[in-house]
Structures are given as C-alpha cells and as structure tokens.
C-alpha cells in the first residue's frame, strides 16, 4: 500500500500536496497539524502503526517528514528497518531504487559521523569545564537602567517590541531573555 503523509501549512499548499500524492498513487493520507520539529505527532504514529513490509510512505518534500536533516534520517532509518519504502516527490528520492538506497546509506553514514563529532565536542567542553578552562560565552553587557526604562515604555504601549530592540541594539532572543531574567 502507498500512504501519503502531509504536515499542514496553508490550505492552498495542502491541496496541491494532496493532489500530488494521490497522482503518485497514495491510497490513504495522514494529516498532521503539529510542527515538524515536534516528536509528538499522533498522525505519524498512527500511520507508522499500520505500515507493513513492502508499503511505501510518500511525502511532497523531506521537510514534511521532519524539521532537520538528522531527524529525517532517524525517521527514514526506522522506516527502512521496518522494510517500508520511502519517497519524496520534490527531491525525487525513492528507496525502492538502487540510487535511493545508496543515497540513504551515504546520508546515514554522514549523520552518524556528525553525531560522533557532536558527542566528542560535548565531552571536550565538559572536560574543559571540569578543569576550569571553559567559561562559556560572556553575556552581552547592557545598561540595566536603560533596559528597564525602555521596557517600561514598551509594556505601556508607547513603542513596539521591535522599536525597543532597535533602541537597545538587541536581537529578539537576547531582548526577550533579558525581559524574562529581569522579570519585566
């Protein structure tokens, strides 16, 4: 059986995806409303529970399956281990072909190498912290009095958050983190 998986974006995009998946031969579609970065996806889990060896999961593009290359590879490996084929229309990728299987093996090897590098870096940082050589990034210095004054004006509706950030010379993550840290 060929099943399609769609993570909803806009209705116009969803209709186009639905049509493309049906044209490719999808007999059943599973729709997801959650973020591709979330691992809690009931429709995906429901679909995975019904898959049998020899079935094919088709998506319109890789980003429908997961939010990062690493997460895509994890899900592809799960499908491949269950002897379920996978196809992505935009990337013209299909594990039923020799080229698709070989591409999957190469991508999996690269993902495994990156995972090992990341773990090695984390261990090195932990060793440096234990030895007192790693301090982390120095927090961006701000004038707390000016920050509080600008936040007071922002909270009072005298300016937008964007204007407050521009006035303080801060990016959104830093601005909102400081607002939270200072309880503003």
Automatic annotation (TrEMBL):
Annotated Resolvase/invertase-type recombinase catalytic domain residues: 1-133
InterPro entries referenced in this protein's UniProt entry, alphabetically: Resolv_N (IPR006119), Resolvase-like_N_sf (IPR036162), SSR_resolvase (IPR050639)
A GO term, aspect molecular function: DNA strand exchange activity
Domain of life from the UniProt record: Bacteria
Listed Gene3D superfamilies: Resolvase, N-terminal catalytic domain
Family matches, as Pfam families: Resolvase
Alphabetized PROSITE patterns for the sequence: RECOMBINASES_3
Protein family according to the UniProt entry: Belongs to the site-specific recombinase resolvase family.
Name of the protein this chain belongs to: Recombinase family protein
Higher taxonomy: Bacteria, Bacillati, Bacillota, Clostridia, Eubacteriales
